[in-house]
Amino acid sequence: MQTKRTWVEALRGSPFSMASFPSIPSPLPLLSLFLLLSIPPVAPIQPQWPLQRVPVVLPQVTEDRPAPHFQADARLDVTSPCDPECHKKALPPSYWDLRSILSYETLHSNGRLTETAVGIYGYTARPQTTPALPSRRKRQIFGHDGRFSIVGQDFLLNYPFSAAVKLSTGCSGTLVGDRHVLTAAHCVHDGKNYVKGAQKLRVGFLKPKQRDSPNPASATNASNAHPSPPDKMKFQWIRAKRTHVPKGWIKGNGNDIGMDYDYALLELKKAHKRRHMKLGVSPPAKQLPGRRVQFSGYDNDRPGQLVYRFCRAGEETPDLLYQHCDAQPGASGSGIYARMWDRRRRRWERKVIGVFSGHQWVDRDGALQEFNVAVRVTPLKYAQICYWIKGNYVDCREG
Fold this sequence. Notes:
Strand content: 25-35%
Oligomer: single chain
Number of helices: 9
Largest sheet: 9 strands, mixed
Number of strands: 18
Radius of gyration: 21 Å
Distance between the termini: 45 Å
Shape: globular
Structural class: alpha+beta
């Protein structure tokens, strides 16, 4: 029988202490743990964000499309018969294919739907090869659960955990701008049409639960009648104004190219006033600190809790990253991020380098295997998403 672990309890266990921490006396104050999380890994060479110029993806023509139906359910588990080797063998899309794939639909809060064609500039297709890695093992949450529940308002309301948000369709997302949230496309669109609740999509921000009362006496009575845990939290919701979904997700499917484009960007009706994460181009897994990825989301089996996890990156294709992180439905759409040294600004920075798509069941050599899949932010995807956020390409040339 599994037991629910808090983040603090989990840090005292062997996986975190042996992998990332020196010998830590117990008990350790929460502040010390937070500081330890902020300390970069000690290595002879600092892991650095790669310096690269990104292409330009510009909108050209926008046309109205028929209104969506909003009848489908959000699929929190993505099914595909195509495993990593299948994706690696797929022919890379041509320049004209990419223009079609990166064109996008925009769903407006009033129900209007538009489609925008794009032009691509400064992009040269280069063959991308990925070294063969051992087949990843079958993976579910069993035995030791590697997820950590983040507890305490001082942690939940501080960066980077405060950048994680919840979608009203049951997914998670990450703040990547003053009004923008990055999530998975399947959280708002099933590949054929928009899901239930997508038109009135809301984004939830975890905040302390305040107990208002006219006088101290009634407050005491209310507290005695309905006791509440000291760390009880609730969500403050903000409506989405616009939702952008690439046509690569809408036109494709798991056996084609859809999995590679399972991402969407939400624009909120008002600014959230929290610190957001920067967007970054996904470096090769071998360049990540400790070859690790990490993300925080709202797993369905832990309602009202923010769940953090980290794990070693596994196989990768030019567009997908396979990893061993424990996760449950609800974590879909979480931003995969890494912390590396920015040599230009001479400081450590966290950047979102992918979107957690979810569990993927595939038939591999006649046996069903489970994969945890994340969509990598490639230079072209970076250019597209950055333009959605900034509204210009000048601020989107360096990933």
